[in-house]
Amino acid sequence: MTGATMATLAPLDQLETRDGLVLDVRPAFAEDEPLLEAFFDAVSDEDRRFRFLAASKHVGHDQLVPLTHVDHWRTESFLAFERQTGALVASAMLACDAQMDTGEAAISIRRDFRGRGVGWTMLDLLASEACKRGLKRVISIEDRDNHAAIELEREKGFEAHGIDGDPHLVLLEKRFG
Q: Looking at the domain that runs over 9-175, which CATH code has it been given?
């Protein structure tokens, strides 16, 4: 097969948001770095700050490597494409600790796809992947100003806890089993 890449060979999962938006979801690979770089340029400044917990006008190579060079078990990075246009609309990551006890979830959504159920769908996917891996819990560390993410996670069964020594962050946790 000429010109095949890991990305083109990766199986697609089809997911549908509560609003009926159909997403094709697959793992991210090294060759997806330029695609993710352009994607994060289409994420709002505030959402980019919330995802990386730092202000950044542009997400570059150093921030993208952890999203594109993963082992696909302890760490998985997913890309969600709108089926109709093929546009990348979301990035979601599950990063597990060495004991495979806890996974940290992080999701970003392109600004023009917010409010269409993409976050709900991607959070459900990460929770399902956490269960497949036998994790006991999933956590998310959020800026206290990220009200949309905190509310979404609470609606999905996450409990909020303060983080000692950092009044700007909140830890949300969902336990399994």
A: 3.40.630.30
